[in-house]
Description:
Blueprint: H1 4-19, H2 23-39, H3 41-57, H4 62-68, H5 72-87, E1 95-100, E2 106-113, E3 116-121, H6 126-137, E4 141-145, H7 151-167, E5 175-177, H8 183-190, E6 198-202, H9 205-214, E7 227-231, H10 237-249, E8 258-264, H11 268-281, E9 285-288, H12 290-293, E10 300-301, E11 315-321, H13 324-334, E12 339-343, H14 347-356, E13 361-364, E14 384-385, E15 393-394, E16 401-408
Parallel strand pairs: 3-4, 3-6, 4-5, 7-8, 7-12, 8-11, 9-10, 9-11, 12-13
Antiparallel strand pairs: 1-2, 2-16, 14-15
Helix pairs in contact: 2-5, 2-7, 3-7, 5-6, 10-11
Subcellular location: Cytoplasm
Family: Belongs to the gamma-glutamyl phosphate reductase family.
Keywords: Amino-acid biosynthesis, Cytoplasm, NADP, Oxidoreductase, Proline biosynthesis
Amino acid sequence: MTDLTQLGKDAKKSAHTLALMSTEQKNSLLKQMALTIKKNQGALLEANQKDLAQAEENGINETMLDRLRLTPERIHAMAEEMNKVAQLDDPIGKVDQMWTNADGLLIGKKRVPLGVIGIIYESRPNVTTDAASLAFKSGNAVILRGGKEAFSSNQLLVQLLQQTLVSAGQSPYAIQFVDDTSHETAEQLMKLTDYLDVLIPRGGANLIRRVKEQATVPIIETGTGNNHVYIDKDAQLSMGVEIIVNAKASRPSVCNAAETLLIHSEIAPFFLPVIEKELVEHGVSLRADARAMDYLETATLAEESDWDTEYLDYILAVKVVDSLDDAITHINQHNTKHSEAIVTDSYQASQRFLNEVDAAAVYVNASTRFTDGAVFGFGAEIGISTQKLHARGPMGLNELTSTKYVIYGDGQIR
């Protein structure tokens, strides 16, 4: 079993050094890491093939294999996202506010790193580079514990990042990898209170639930996306079709994909047959309520559990609603607070949807697939927070910082 206590001690020491590192040093090292990843593309593809072969033997379906798969294009994109993080403004040391109080004290609120971040995640190797680059740029040491499906890919990625640090005369312990994928080790990491400042789980509902139940370190909940697209009675048909097809079928295995289509009863008779045709052509099967079944040819009858399911597959739940109120009520009852969208030409409906739907990202006339740190301009993301403290939505550099008050006086006493 991995000695997590030693990893924690090493990370704590490294975090102190990282917090004092200049922006120029961090940016230079991130660019070197990105170059190292590009130069080792062949080895990464070979390691990933081992993971894919093992996953296929274990019966992993194709949509989940897609999350795991590395290609030359994806490796290049991973490296480029590290370069983008290097180009972003460094939040560390920034003073958000400064004022003079009644006692003549000059008080400032300054951005500082969180310290040591632990991340438990599943089968996407790009999470390794995204998390490492964001943590490093924001002055945090990171301990990465990936899932067994991507073990070889993740292990090699971290080795390459550590090699880059050592070659530059820096400690490799800023980015560490837990090389034991057992549940026992994961549970130990969840309780590493002496060394972890925060733990971020990134994965499916079971992982998130287990971490919430067992962790004694502070956590930031990320992830599960039971997302909805509501097509209002004032929607444009062509827009509605394009948005739901993209939200469901462009990459169904990711957390910002749509899982439920809600459609207003006034337009259901002529919208649903068109939508069904397009979705079926993209390989999507439908699970519909009794009212929607009247207008669909290929759907099966939905069960109550379908409204709460994150399929991560080519499956979409469909429900007919009678009003915007009904749509909002259904969403707030069944969603996971991730991403929700309305398609409408009504300004009043759009504003009510924005104001009343409880989610980290709420869209008007756009696909839920845009909920992504890189797309939002953060370079990459450490995850998408679905809670309200300490961060919400895609988490970039600022979300990996805390603040301290710095106070200047000239002899004041109280």
